[in-house]
Design brief:
2 domains, single chain, 118 residues
Length: 118
Protein backbone atom coordinates (compact mmCIF):
# COMPACT_ATOMS: atom_id res chain seq x y z
CA UNK A 1 0.00 0.00 0.00
CA UNK A 2 2.81 2.39 0.90
CA UNK A 3 4.62 1.76 -2.37
CA UNK A 4 1.48 2.57 -4.35
CA UNK A 5 1.10 5.88 -2.49
CA UNK A 6 4.69 6.86 -3.34
CA UNK A 7 4.11 5.91 -6.98
CA UNK A 8 0.86 7.92 -7.04
CA UNK A 9 2.68 10.93 -5.57
CA UNK A 10 5.43 10.55 -8.16
CA UNK A 11 3.01 10.25 -11.08
CA UNK A 12 0.97 13.23 -9.87
CA UNK A 13 4.15 15.26 -9.50
CA UNK A 14 5.34 14.34 -13.00
CA UNK A 15 1.95 15.34 -14.40
CA UNK A 16 2.07 18.70 -12.59
CA UNK A 17 5.67 19.22 -13.70
CA UNK A 18 4.72 18.46 -17.30
CA UNK A 19 1.82 20.90 -17.05
CA UNK A 20 4.27 23.47 -15.71
CA UNK A 21 6.22 23.27 -18.95
CA UNK A 22 3.31 24.88 -20.81
CA UNK A 23 1.49 26.76 -18.03
CA UNK A 24 3.38 29.87 -16.96
CA UNK A 25 2.00 29.91 -13.40
CA UNK A 26 2.95 26.34 -12.54
CA UNK A 27 6.63 25.69 -11.76
CA UNK A 28 8.17 22.52 -13.18
CA UNK A 29 11.32 21.97 -11.13
CA UNK A 30 9.82 21.43 -7.65
CA UNK A 31 7.35 18.88 -8.97
CA UNK A 32 10.03 17.00 -10.90
CA UNK A 33 12.27 16.89 -7.81
CA UNK A 34 9.35 15.63 -5.72
CA UNK A 35 8.63 12.96 -8.34
CA UNK A 36 12.26 11.82 -8.31
CA UNK A 37 12.18 11.55 -4.53
CA UNK A 38 8.89 9.62 -4.54
CA UNK A 39 10.05 7.26 -7.28
CA UNK A 40 13.36 6.66 -5.48
CA UNK A 41 11.30 5.37 -2.54
CA UNK A 42 8.97 3.22 -4.62
CA UNK A 43 10.04 2.28 -8.14
CA UNK A 44 13.60 2.00 -9.45
CA UNK A 45 12.19 1.62 -12.98
CA UNK A 46 10.22 4.89 -12.84
CA UNK A 47 13.11 6.64 -11.09
CA UNK A 48 15.52 5.59 -13.85
CA UNK A 49 13.01 6.66 -16.51
CA UNK A 50 12.72 10.11 -14.94
CA UNK A 51 16.49 10.51 -14.66
CA UNK A 52 16.89 9.55 -18.33
CA UNK A 53 14.11 11.86 -19.52
CA UNK A 54 15.34 14.51 -21.98
CA UNK A 55 13.53 17.40 -20.32
CA UNK A 56 13.31 16.38 -16.66
CA UNK A 57 16.56 14.45 -16.22
CA UNK A 58 18.84 17.52 -16.46
CA UNK A 59 16.79 19.35 -13.81
CA UNK A 60 17.33 16.50 -11.37
CA UNK A 61 21.01 16.13 -12.28
CA UNK A 62 21.64 19.85 -11.75
CA UNK A 63 19.94 19.73 -8.38
CA UNK A 64 21.81 16.62 -7.23
CA UNK A 65 25.18 17.83 -8.45
CA UNK A 66 25.12 21.45 -7.30
CA UNK A 67 21.79 22.17 -5.66
CA UNK A 68 21.34 24.25 -8.81
CA UNK A 69 18.21 25.63 -10.42
CA UNK A 70 18.40 26.89 -14.00
CA UNK A 71 18.01 30.67 -14.34
CA UNK A 72 14.91 30.26 -16.51
CA UNK A 73 13.31 28.05 -13.85
CA UNK A 74 14.18 30.61 -11.17
CA UNK A 75 12.47 33.38 -13.09
CA UNK A 76 9.41 31.23 -13.80
CA UNK A 77 9.14 30.20 -10.14
CA UNK A 78 9.39 33.73 -8.79
CA UNK A 79 6.93 35.04 -11.38
CA UNK A 80 4.48 32.26 -10.50
CA UNK A 81 4.79 33.14 -6.81
CA UNK A 82 4.22 36.83 -7.55
CA UNK A 83 1.21 36.00 -9.74
CA UNK A 84 -0.29 33.81 -7.00
CA UNK A 85 0.13 36.61 -4.48
CA UNK A 86 -1.29 39.11 -6.95
CA UNK A 87 -4.31 36.89 -7.47
CA UNK A 88 -4.86 36.74 -3.72
CA UNK A 89 -4.70 40.54 -3.59
CA UNK A 90 -7.14 40.86 -6.50
CA UNK A 91 -9.55 38.46 -4.80
CA UNK A 92 -9.34 40.55 -1.60
CA UNK A 93 -8.08 37.73 0.60
CA UNK A 94 -8.10 38.48 4.33
CA UNK A 95 -5.09 40.38 5.67
CA UNK A 96 -3.94 37.50 7.89
CA UNK A 97 -3.94 35.16 4.89
CA UNK A 98 -2.00 37.66 2.78
CA UNK A 99 0.55 37.98 5.58
CA UNK A 100 1.05 34.21 5.86
CA UNK A 101 1.10 33.73 2.10
CA UNK A 102 3.50 36.65 1.66
CA UNK A 103 5.89 35.29 4.28
CA UNK A 104 5.86 31.77 2.82
CA UNK A 105 6.26 33.00 -0.76
CA UNK A 106 9.03 35.42 0.21
CA UNK A 107 10.94 32.63 1.97
CA UNK A 108 10.39 30.31 -1.00
CA UNK A 109 11.54 32.94 -3.48
CA UNK A 110 14.62 33.68 -1.36
CA UNK A 111 15.50 29.98 -1.35
CA UNK A 112 15.01 29.61 -5.11
CA UNK A 113 17.04 32.73 -5.86
CA UNK A 114 19.84 31.71 -3.49
CA UNK A 115 20.50 28.45 -5.36
CA UNK A 116 23.29 28.52 -7.92
CA UNK A 117 22.41 28.51 -11.62
CA UNK A 118 23.64 25.84 -13.99
Amino acid sequence: MRRQLWIALGCTSVALGAAGVVLPLLPTTPFVLLAAWAFAKSSPRLHDWLLAHNMFGPLIADWRRNGAIAPRAKVASVLAMAAAFGLSLALAAPAWLLAVQGAVLAASAAFVLSRPGR
